Structure to design on (199 residues):
């Protein structure tokens, strides 16, 4: 008996420990955008870390690509209930981008070309938990999925992973972003099913 019958007679599958409550698995990669896809020419692209007083750091596309790169493989969880396992990315850790930023800020507001914003505690961007990525699955990131570059914060619902990212503003108080002011949960932990305000 070959591989097929072995798979057929295999142990019943365990409930998937990698799937947060209320989520189902997809194998395609849905696109969810609240507006049109902004087109950002690379010679005009820039990414900044800034405070209310102004930019602390700013990188051109070439400068950004010259930073140390990582290739995280992560699971994605969208608040609309699809999850996608084992997605492969390439980009720069927020730990690198924040390396010599002196700030007592506790909050971050990611903002994008096109005007999208999303807020999160600064600590959720640090310690290997977040990246600004520019490649997906070995190819340059397509504009519908946030190219040239998007934020990737896989431990929170995917609306926190701002596409077409332009910068991160460091703040002493929390400023709710686009979906957070529209009734979504302020934090968005998929394991605690924090989908909407009040969850
Ligand atoms: N700039 C921007 N980023 C965004 C969004 C958006 O509308 N604009 N949508 C968010 C939401 S709700 C989700 S689920 C994911 C979808 O990412 P994808 O289109 O690559 O699947 O992007 C997030 N980042
Ligand atoms: Mo979403």
């Amino acid at each position: 008996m070959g591989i097929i019958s072995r798979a057929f007679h295999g142990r019943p599958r365990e409930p998937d420990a990698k799937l947060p409550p209320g989520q189902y698995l997809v194998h395609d990669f849905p696109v969810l955008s609240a507006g049109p896809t902004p087109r950002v020419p690379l010679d005009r692209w820039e990414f900044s870390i800034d405070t209310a007083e102004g930019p602390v750091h700013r990188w051109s596309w070439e400068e950004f690509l010259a930073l140390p790169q990582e290739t995280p493989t992560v699971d994605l969880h969208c608040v609309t209930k699809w999850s996608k396992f084992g997605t492969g990315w390439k980009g720069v850790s927020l730990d690198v981008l924040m390396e010599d930023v002196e700030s007592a800020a506790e909050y971050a507001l990611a903002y994008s070309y096109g005007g999208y914003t999303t807020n999160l505690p600064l600590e959720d961007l640090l310690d290997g938990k977040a990246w600004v990525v520019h490649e997906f699955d070995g190819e340059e990131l397509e504009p519908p999925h946030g190219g040239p570059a998007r934020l990737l914060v896989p431990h929170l619902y995917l609306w926190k992973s701002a596409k077409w990212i332009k910068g991160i503003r460091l703040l002493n108080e929390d400023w709710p972003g686009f979906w957070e002011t529209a009734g979504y949960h302020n934090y968005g932990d998929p394991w605690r099913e924090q989908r909407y305000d009040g969850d």
About this structure: Residues 30-34, 78, 112, 114, 116, 145-146, 158-159, 161-164 surround MTE (ligand 1) (CB under 6 Å).
